[in-house]
Write a sequence for this structure.
């Protein structure tokens, strides 16, 4: 799960991490008027001379795409807010289809002396927490990692021992912070670490982390990714979920407890078990096709779940064929077959359907499919299924 920048900043503020103050303006009537009022209030409170109007979407790279505007007058704030709300933002992270902006965050402007990079993430290699810092703030870290890996400092924190000031001092040194800033730096890194741990984050990226001309350290941008499996114990974080930002199929799938991930190919996949689902994607690729999704209906799926899974797959207009690959262990093949038939009838299925069943009650399942009167291509084995699905998708 992800959250917006303004939510990330509110979260960081709770853990005493320095962030600029701001106001949120949502789409609706009189965006200009509300933006002006918010900007005035902010100025009365903070005494800032400059405002920054920032598009709130779950994607980075907004600056270069026109989603971040530094404004020197109230008129500029008004026109920036009006322009950004409703715009389609296309950044390297949104994909070519872009994202419509529904909210803007109006923030007090900061006097930037240095733009740095800081991130905290779960490190699979060490099974610990990794802190990463770089002097190359504002840039995309993937680019820095590729061209100047020596410019990224990494400090590993053992979560059972926690963060200690020496971790922070290592980062201060790597960033070349003035000695006068080290105490604040150590607190800043510690605050972000605490936010990360206590909110069950998997990733927190602050890009840029800035040093202001007044000598303060702040998070000027912030991005979080949370561990979905921990959200049952993070009610406050879960409340920040913005369904409008999520892929509509993902949202539907989470409602029915289906593990669904959209991909960009043409073959819809309905599989039980994550391992078999991965293998199905691989074998489609091997035979020259491209999967449209990963979908694991789980071990105990019933007719209704299968039908919902079909509906989700069919919402993707790129899908040219569907491959059902089920191993009936806990789930019986005849139940799956009933689900497939019911869904195909109800949805008046037009795309070719290839079904491979194996396991408990397989004969009964195959019989049901054969007698359904529907145009279903049966397959024997994984390879046969993949070849048939690839051929079907190519028309
Ligand atoms: P992103 O492009 O989506 O990562 O958005 P950011 O929040 O990182 O903003 C992009 C860039 O806008 C930053 O790297 C800064 O250079 C600039 N920027 C953002 N806020 C301010 C501000 O308060 N003052 C100034 N001068 N520049 C800002
Ligand atoms: Mn950024």
């Amino acid at each position: 799960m992800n959250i917006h920048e303004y939510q990330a900043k509110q979260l960081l503020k709770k853990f005493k991490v320095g962030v600029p103050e701001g106001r949120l303006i949502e789409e609706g009537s009189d965006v200009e008027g509300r933006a002006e009022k918010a900007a005035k209030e902010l100025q009365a409170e903070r005494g800032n001379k400059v405002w920054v109007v920032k598009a709130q979407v779950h994607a980075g790279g907004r600056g270069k795409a026109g989603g971040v505007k530094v404004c020197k007058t109230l008129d500029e704030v008004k026109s920036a807010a009006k322009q950004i709300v409703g715009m389609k933002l296309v950044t390297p992270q949104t994909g070519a289809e872009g994202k419509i902006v529904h909210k803007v965050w109006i923030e007090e402007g900061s006097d930037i002396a240095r733009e740095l990079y800081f991130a905290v993430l779960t490190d699979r290699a060490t099974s610990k927490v990794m802190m990463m810092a770089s002097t190359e703030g504002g840039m995309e870290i993937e680019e820095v990692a590729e061209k100047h890996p020596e410019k990224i400092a990494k400090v590993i924190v053992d979560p059972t021992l926690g963060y200690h000031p020496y971790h922070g001092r290592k980062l201060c040194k790597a960033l070349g912070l003035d000695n006068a800033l080290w105490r604040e730096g150590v607190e800043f890194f510690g605050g972000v670490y605490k936010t990360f741990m206590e909110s069950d984050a998997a990733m927190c990226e602050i890009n840029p982390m800035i040093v202001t001309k007044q000598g303060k350290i702040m998070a000027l941008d912030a991005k979080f990714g949370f561990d979905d499996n921990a959200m049952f114990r993070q009610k406050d974080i879960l409340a920040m979920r913005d369904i409008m930002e999520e892929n509509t199929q993902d949202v539907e799938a989470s409602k029915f407890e289906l593990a669904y991930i959209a991909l960009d190919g043409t073959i819809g996949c309905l599989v039980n078990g994550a391992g078999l689902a991965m293998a199905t994607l691989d074998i489609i690729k091997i035979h020259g096709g491209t999967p449209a999704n990963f979908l694991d209906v789980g071990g105990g799926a019933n007719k209704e779940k299968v039908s919902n899974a079909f509906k989700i797959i069919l919402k993707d207009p790129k899908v040219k064929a569907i491959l059902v690959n089920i191993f009936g262990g806990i789930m019986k093949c005849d139940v799956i077959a009933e689900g497939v038939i019911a869904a195909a009838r109800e949805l008046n299925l037009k795309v070719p359907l290839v079904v491979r069943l194996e396991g408990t009650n397989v004969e009964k399942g195959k019989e049901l499919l054969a007698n359904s009167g529907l145009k279903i291509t049966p397959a024997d084995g994984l390879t046969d299924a993949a070849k048939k699905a690839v051929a079907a998708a190519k028309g």
The CA atoms of residues 125 and 156 lie 11 Å apart. The domain at 20-108 is CATH 3.30.1490.20 (Dna Ligase; domain 1).
